[in-house]
Amino acid sequence: MTDHALDFALKLEPLGEGRFCGRTTPEYWNMGGPFGGITAALLLRAVLDHPQRRGRPVAQTVNFCAAVGEGGFEIQVRLVRDGRSTQHWQVEMIQDGRGTVTTGSVVTGAERETWAHAPAAPPSAPAPQTVPVMPTEGRNAWLAQYEFRVMEGRERFDLEPPGETASAASRLWVRDRPDRPLDYAALAGLADTFIVRILLVRGYFTPVATVSLTTYFLADEAALVRQGTRPLLGVADARAFRHGFADQSAELWADDGTLLAVSHQVTWYKE
Amino acid sequence: MTDHALDFALKLEPLGEGRFCGRTTPEYWNMGGPFGGITAALLLRAVLDHPQRRGRPVAQTVNFCAAVGEGGFEIQVRLVRDGRSTQHWQVEMIQDGRGTVTTGSVVTGAERETWAHAPAAPPSAPAPQTVPVMPTEGRNAWLAQYEFRVMEGRERFDLEPPGETASAASRLWVRDRPDRPLDYAALAGLADTFIVRILLVRGYFTPVATVSLTTYFLADEAALVRQGTRPLLGVADARAFRHGFADQSAELWADDGTLLAVSHQVTWYKE
């Protein structure tokens, strides 16, 4: 535990029997609630803190059911299945007066060596220190908790409508700010730092929300330790925006070319 | 309800209060249990059959916790959140003596018209009738319930090890066999017809299992009706195989170029 804003935001107190309590923090505030990535990291942290947990995170799905309010929350963790290769967990975040605001599932798996193969190649990128850091002043608080060095993709979406339709693709270096050694909870948060694509495409603000987020963790803990505090290379893109919903997929790469995580989400938009 | 094997496999009897019962069918049998796509379709069907369900499926995650045994099962559906734009559902499949074998979540959303944009273009493909149908004789039963016309990607994986490492990518036309009008439950099944990629890559059988499957439904019901019984264009690929787990992503396109669904999964492999 450090005094990093992330560690402070991920502070959970065990209440026993798979129950934990915590509080939202202003540093990770988004528009009408906490940044989704911090909620994902909290649900993962609760599973990782469970005394029966074995192995590392393999998959996480988070369903954002309702706005999380400012203040306290409880996270309830249930081990549904304790198998030889995997453990299956169900997680819920509950708030007084709001009921269940988030549901999720986590799969953990044993660390072991197997045949390995990496058909996907990392995207090309100049060294992070050669790319300017995106300014985050005057924007939603959570953005300032990350250092974004954007190589491709619109950085701002405060144009007057109608903006020019732009690409949904981003390529950037990203890490926690101030820098912090990478771990799975941080990675779960980083996986959601790719702005909801419609804002990039249209260039102006319109009500949006992540509906469901799924992250696959494809690296062992040693790869995270190797990466340490250095920026991750991220890419994201969307396939289709239609009938008020859109998908997007992102990849997070270590700077040695190891794919650390892939993350997919479906987002809601109003107009 | 027709006498199609899919409709027979998806037959659920309501037990009241979000509980349904059904039975596995031999037609969709895989190696050590039912084909994962039929389980996904069943969980979706249970949500769609729930009297409180509004709107169409938007997202589904299925966690394959344990092998589903031959015979009866119960599906329990819980409406966690009934919002204006989305409904959030939790689903579990339970078997006597086995407990919870599958968990899942489903998000449904209202059908409505909005701004639309399709940055992803459909893959190129020759007309389906010009591509030979993949033989499925002597293989796991479920394969015979689909008509695969493979344009790219290894079709068999019964080589003696060591096979030559091949691409993880597939491009194919696929539909239910015999052909059947497309609906969301069928689409949920089709989304899992992309063979676990490690078998294609290595070319020989090795123990594998889908751990978690997430499908986003990006089309309204009208698009499914338009597609009717004609083959869908599918592509799939994997990014990384490491430490006993691998990811894969697939897209299912209507033949008019509409992206109907994207599907992601993380798979376990033994060696």
Report what the structure shows:
- 2 copies of one chain form a homodimer.
- Chain A is mostly beta strands and 271 residues long.
- Chain A is built from 5 helices and 13 strands.
- Chain A has helices at residues 5-9, 36-49, 184-190, 197-202, 221-227; strands at residues 13-16, 19-23, 56-64, 72-82, 86-95, 99-109, 146-152, 170-176, 208-217, 232-237, 241-242, 245-253, 259-269.
- In chain A, strands 1, 2, 3, 4, 5, 6, 7, 8, 9, 10, 11, 12 and 13 form a 13-stranded antiparallel beta sheet that branches.
- In chain A, strand 12 (245-253) and strand 13 (259-269) form a beta hairpin.
- The termini of chain A are far apart.
- The model of chain A has no long low-confidence stretch (mean pLDDT 96).
- At the A-B interface, strand 3, strand 5, strand 6, strand 9 and strand 11 of A face strand 3, strand 5, strand 6, strand 9 and strand 11 of B.
List the helices and strands and how they pair.
The structure is a homodimer of 271-residue chains.
Chain A: H1 5-9, E1 13-16, E2 19-23, H2 36-49, E3 56-64, E4 72-82, E5 86-95, E6 99-109, E7 146-152, E8 170-176, H3 184-190, H4 197-202, E9 208-217, H5 221-227, E10 232-237, E11 241-242, E12 245-253, E13 259-269
Antiparallel strand pairs in A: 1-2, 2-4, 3-6, 3-9, 4-5, 5-6, 7-8, 8-10, 9-13, 10-12, 11-12, 12-13
